[in-house]
Structures are given as structure tokens and as C-alpha cells.
Write a structure and sequence with these properties.
By secondary structure, this protein is α/β, with parallel strands linked by helices. The protein is built from 25 helices and 18 strands. Strands 3-4-6-7-9-10-11-12 form an 8-stranded parallel β-barrel, surrounded by 7 helices.
Length: about 675
């Protein structure tokens, strides 16, 4: 009979960290363990080895504060909640109905007057949601600054269907600071927008079970925020909204559950897992400090694949990115997950990309059975330590934000924008040198790829698909309703404003007319918006120049690539050089094993290229240069490049304009080639 008390940790002699490091250094053949240490983009240390000594004692259980290991120990999995922003209501309806019939469980709909699904009336919203059961389906709205009008259109639609508002499930998505960050303005200023938020919050808490506020980090994530900064921005925004709700008379235990969060997952797999776990820990800490009960400390987190990592070029690689990011969201314990279509960086998504996005989650949950384990990352010394260090770092940034007046002041003063720009400058250096490679764009690009094209949606098609009439009242009744709304704006009872907006919509008023009425007398608030900075934008701009030349002249820009010596001698640098040139959209015209200066010059002239590049071994360079370079120079190329580093000795490097090697700023070199060509 097997020994039921067998324990593997008692079978082997214990080994401490020093013993493990000694074994590592033995394999490193002279290098030290320190050579393996790294830092994350946000400055967190990454050790080559983690042991039990790296973790805190007394790790908590899933379902208990601070919820690092998950908010619900009994729950298995997450809600498959896809996001929709198709501007035409009728097309958005078809996408939603198709997805709901094939595995999607929750909806996250971006909509408003000028963003996402464009709606002007409750009837437009009815078109979008005609196939959605409002009582059983969890629906998250993302209305930007149009939150009062859109939410009231949602209430008016529910009334028209005979659905009690108390039966609605989901979130209204009120996020005025997020709207300010993304759009750079609030048409009614912060005073007006918080007046509307208070009216909706008071009404929503009294009449519904819906979550009202949302902390959405998309504007910051799309601008390239690090995981640490994204957490800090989210926490400071959460505190701002929680303070407002308490100020408006809602106790913490009532207010906190009316806030949810939406985070973006990016490319650093383990960091994204730790980020979601750290977010729960930090939220619990803040709500606890505010006097919230354990139940109030548990807020719902929606995780989406961020747009920041998605590329227009070779978008098929986005399939892999989205899969990894969705997996990280699932392992990190998100309550709902949205997988981005692979063509999200293009104008619009087609049925195939939507299908693959939906099925990615179904495979993760139903076939890979990721949901069968609560907190799959729990017990990993690495993840546990990274979670703790990330939470501590984010807390320090959060304290800096709060000491400077909170997220509102940080946005208005430009501090958030400056923070993100500083991060971007550091990241850009890594992108330009390919220390941070972008597969299919800066690394292993395919110049002959078949472009994935998505036609832009004409504005007239959008306008023709909205503005459906709602209600049976005449123009006079609509005007009276808007006058009543104007009076309600000045009413001392904030919730009267929400009811007035609902009545105006029920009498046929449009959302744009309601927006004008709400803005009347308020001063606009304008700041510099937080601009999206897709990670691939620099190299994709170079490829755009190449495509423009191809369309105008019938051929891409060429570079004559002289490969010196035998195949064995030049293969490594030949591959490196062709990859380098393709990253900028240049076609390599190869000339192999031409070692005579006159023959090389003739081959260059025959190629039709205006730029030359030499690739071979260092030994071959010592033999053939500078004679070959001089021969090329006689043909007057715009530039001559060499694959490799400068020698620093003798005449070998004479006539070379640029040296292309690992770690070099290849973006600047490629951009310089276009500049030399006058493009």
C-alpha cells in the first residue's frame, strides 16, 4: 500500500537560495547571477529565481479580503463579455445577436452622440438591443461624457418594454475623468458633469441595482502607461468617485459596490496577471481605509485586450497577442474578459475576426479549462512577489497623485500627460533599437503580405442609421419637456434631473437637444487629451511611406545588398540585413559573392537602387574594404550602409554612412534613408 503520508519536500535535502544560485553560476560559465537580473518597464526588479523566502507569510484565501487571490472562491471562470463600438446601430445589433447565439454572455457597448455606436434616441438604442433580454443579460454601457442622456435612454427603453428598472443588470459606466482624459474636454465642465453624475447616481442607487461609476484605464493604457502607473491612475480615480458618492450622502458600503473597473491587458504576460491581482488588493485597502466592510471591498473588474499592442501590419499576429492577453486576464482573475478582434487596429472588424475573438475565450474556458482552478497563479513565488511589489509601487505613485490634489488635478495640470510622455520616451528607445521587438512589424516583417483592408464607414451611412423616432408626442410637447428639463437643472433635488431627462426622451426629444440643454450656462473644460500611442506606430509609418511609393511608382524603395564571401560567411548578416530593410519597407536587391570592385559597381548600377548596403563577416570586411566601398561610391549612391559595428581602426570604415548592428537605432537609420531620398 502506498504511503499516504509521503511528502516530496521531505525526500530531498533542503536547498537554500545560495545553493540554487551556486548551481546557476556553474552553468553560466563565469557570469554571475546578477547578469540575469532584469527590471520591468515600470522599474520593478525581476529576479532569475524565486523561492518561498520571496513571499509573504500567511497568504490569504480566495474570496476573502484583500481579494488578491480572487473575489469569489465559489465562482469558476469569468463572463465572456465582448465589446462593441460599430457606429451603425443596425450593424451593431447584428453583431450582438450573432455573438449572443454563439457563446457571448455579457455585453460592453461603447455608445453616444459621437463615439462608438451612434445613437440619438431610445429607439436607436432599441435597435441595438432588440435581441437582448434586459432582465437576464449583464449589460455594461460605456457612454463617455454622454452618460446621463444614454443612461436615461436605457431607462426609457426598459420602461417601454415593461421591464422594471430594478431588474436591469450591469453598469451605466459613468466615468467623467476618463472622458476628460480621452476627449480633452467636457462640454459642461466638471461642475456640470458632476451635477449630472450626482443626479444619475442618486436615481440609479434608489431605483436600480446597476453599478453607476466605472474606472476605465483605457485612455492611459492606449497611451502606453506602465502597469504600475495604470494601477495608480485607476486607484486615484476610484478614490475621487468614492469621495463624491459619500459627499452626496451615500455611505461607503452602499457607494463602493456601485463602482466597477475596466483594465487593459498588454503584452507583458506575467505583469498583466500580477496587475489584476494587485488591483484587487489595492481596491480592498482603499475601501477598507474608508470604512467599508469586507463585502464592499470586493469590486468587479472587467479586463480587455488593450489596443496599444495591436498592429495594422501583419494583423494576424494580433491573434496570438489577444490569446496571450486573454489568458493573462483569466489567470489574473478578471470577472469578465473581452478579447479584441485581430483587426481592431483597422477601420472596422469583420465577421471572421469577431468569431475568432469570441472563440478564443471559449477555448480557454471550455477546452483548456482555465476556469477549473481558482487563482491558477496562486502559490507561484514569482507571481506572488511581483503582485506585492507592483502593489507597493502603485501605492507610492497613488500617494504622489493624492498629495498633488488627486486625479482631477493631475489631468488638468498636464501631470498625467507628462508622466506618460516620459514613459514613452524610454520605451521608444527600446522600440527603435528593437530591444523591444514587434513581431511582423519591426521584427520578421513580410513585405509581400496581403494587406488586410477595411473600408472606412462613410459618415452619411452612420447618419442614415440613427435618429429613429421615439414616443408619440408632437413638437410642442418635446419643447415643453426640454423647458421642464431646464427647470430641473436648477432644482435642489438632483434626482429630479434624471427623471426629467427620461420624460423628455419619452416625449420624443433627441439626445443632442438634451446635451445642448444640459450644457446651457456651463463653461467648457478643455485640456490636452491623452493621445493613443500604439507601440508599432513608428515602424508602421515607415511602411506607409513604402506603400505610397509603391502606389505612385509601381515599386518599393530598393536597397542594393552586397553579400560578401561564401554563403556560410554572409548568411547571418544577410538575414539580419534583409530583416532590417523590410522593417522600413525597403526591398533588398541581393548581389552574392561579388568581390571585384568593378563588378560590384556594375551590379549596383544595374539594380536601379539608390542606396547600397554591404553584409559579410568581419574577416571579409578586413580583406575587401575599403576598396569595394570606394567602387560603390563612384556610382554616387545616396547612402552606403554596413551590417556590423565600426572597426575603429585603419581605413576599413572609409565611405560608410551608417553602421547597422544589434542595439543600433535602426528606426533613425531607416527614417534617414527616406529623408535622403526626399520622401
Amino acid at each position: 500500500m502506498a504511503d499516504s503520508k509521503f511528502r516530496i519536500d521531505e525526500t530531498f535535502a533542503p536547498a537554500d537560495l545560495a545553493a540554487w544560485e551556486a548551481l546557476i553560476e556553474k552553468d553560466l560559465r563565469g557570469a554571475t547571477v546578477d547578469s540575469l537580473r532584469r527590471t520591468t518597464e515600470g522599474g520593478l526588479p525581476l529576479e532569475p529565481l524565486y523561492t518561498e523566502e520571496n513571499t509573504r507569510e500567511g497568504s490569504e484565501f480566495p474570496g476573502l479580503p484583500p481579494y488578491t487571490r480572487g473575489g469569489d472562491a465559489a465562482r469558476r471562470g469569468w463572463i465572456i463579455r465582448q465589446e462593441y463600438s460599430e457606429p451603425r446601430p443596425s450593424v451593431a445589433r447584428m453583431q450582438i445577436e450573432h455573438d449572443l447565439d454563439r457563446g457571448v454572455e455579457g455585453l460592453f457597448i461603447e455608445l453616444g452622440l459621437s463615439r462608438g455606436v451612434r445613437i440619438l434616441s431610445p429607439a436607436d438604442l432599441e435597435e441595438v438591443l432588440s435581441g437582448v433580454d434586459l432582465e437576464s443579460r449583464d449589460l455594461c454601457l460605456s457612454p463617455g461624457a454622454d452618460f446621463l442622456g444614454v443612461s436615461c435612454a436605457f431607462f426609457a427603453l426598459a420602461r417601454a418594454r415593461g421591464v422594471a428598472l430594478s431588474k436591469l443588470r450591469g453598469s451605466l459606466g459613468v466615468d467623467p475623468l476618463g472622458a476628460l482624459a480621452r476627449d480633452g474636454s467636457l462640454s459642461s465642465g466638471l461642475r456640470g458633469v458632476y451635477r449630472e453624475a450626482r443626479a444619475l447616481a442618486d436615481y440609479g442607487i434608489r431605483e436600480t441595482d446597476l453599478r453607476v461609476f466605472r474606472v476605465d484605464t483605457a485612455p492611459y493604457a492606449e497611451a502606453g502607461a506602465t502597469a504600475v502607473d495604470e494601477l495608480a491612475f485607476a486607484l486615484s480615480t476610484l478614490v475621487a468617485y468614492l469621495r463624491k458618492l459619500v459627499e452626496w450622502g451615500h455611505p461607503v458600503d452602499e457607494a463602493a459596490p456601485r463602482i466597477d473597473l475596466a483594465l487593459s491587458t498588454g503584452g507583458e504576460f506575467f505583469e498583466q496577471i500580477a496587475k489584476l491581482r494587485a488591483m484587487r488588493l489595492l481596491v480592498s485597502k482603499v475601501v477598507h481605509a474608508a470604512g467599508g466592510s469586507p463585502k464592499a471591498q470586493r469590486l468587479l473588474i472587467h479586463a480587455r485586450n488593450g489596443r496599444f499592442t495591436k498592429t495594422r501590419r501583419d494583423p494576424w499576429v494580433n491573434l496570438l497577442r489577444s490569446t496571450a492577453e486573454s489568458f493573462a486576464a483569466a489567470v489574473g482573475g478578471a470577472d469578465s474578459v473581452a478579447t479584441a478582434p485581430f483587426d481592431i487596429a483597422l477601420e472596422s472588424s469583420d465577421d471572421f475576426s469577431l468569431r475568432i475573438a469570441r472563440n478564443t475565450q471559449l477555448i480557454l474556458r471550455e477546452e483548456a479549462r482555465v476556469a477549473d482552478v481558482v487563482d491558477p497563479a496562486g502559490g507561484s513565488y514569482f507571481i506572488e512577489r511581483l503582485t506585492e511589489e507592483m502593489a507597493r509601487a502603485a501605492w507610492e505613485v497613488f500617494r504622489q497623485l493624492e498629495s498633488a490634489g488627486g486625479m482631477e488635478n493631475a489631468l488638468k495640470s498636464g501631470r498625467v500627460a507628462s508622466w506618460l510622455e516620459e514613459t514613452e520616451r524610454a520605451r521608444e528607445l527600446a522600440v527603435r533599437s528593437r530591444k523591444r521587438p514587434i513581431l511582423g512589424v519591426s521584427e520578421f516583417p513580410n513585405l509581400t503580405e496581403a494587406r488586410v483592408e477595411r473600408a472606412p464607414i462613410a459618415p452619411e451611412l452612420i447618419d442614415a442609421d440613427r435618429g429613429r423616432p421615439f414616443g408619440n408626442e408632437d413638437a410642442d410637447a418635446r419643447q415643453l419637456a426640454l423647458m421642464e428639463l431646464s427647470r430641473a437643472i436648477r432644482d435642489e433635488d438632483p434626482s429630479a434631473l434624471t427623471e426629467s431627462v427620461i420624460r423628455a426622451l419619452e416625449k420624443g426629444a433627441r439626445l443632442d437637444a438634451i446635451r445642448v440643454t444640459l450644457d446651457d450656462g456651463e463653461a467648457i473644460l478643455a485640456i490636452e487629451p491623452i493621445k493613443p500611442r500604439p507601440i508599432a506606430r513608428l515602424f508602421e509609418a515607415l511602411r506607409d511611406k513604402s506603400d505610397a511609393l509603391l502606389e505612385r511608382t509601381g515599386e518599393r524603395p530598393k536597397v542594393f545588398l552586397a553579400l560578401l564571401g561564401s554563403v556560410a560567411e554572409h548568411t547571418a548578416r544577410a538575414t539580419f540585413s534583409a530583416n532590417f530593410l523590410a522593417a522600413g519597407g525597403f526591398e533588398a536587391i541581393e548581389a552574392k559573392e561579388i568581390d571585384e570592385p568593378a563588378a560590384l559597381r556594375a551590379a549596383y548600377l544595374a539594380s536601379g537602387a539608390k542606396i547600397a548596403m554591404i553584409a559579410g563577416s568581419d574577416a571579409r570586411y578586413s580583406e575587401a574594404l575599403p576598396d569595394l566601398t570606394r567602387a560603390l561610391r563612384e556610382a554616387s549612391p545616396l547612402k552606403v550602409l554596413l551590417a556590423g559595428k565600426p572597426s575603429g581602426e585603419g581605413e576599413r570604415d572609409e565611405g560608410i554612412d551608417e553602421f547597422v548592428s544589434l542595439g543600433a537605432d535602426i528606426y533613425s537609420i531607416l527614417a534617414g534613408l527616406y529623408e535622403a531620398m526626399g520622401v
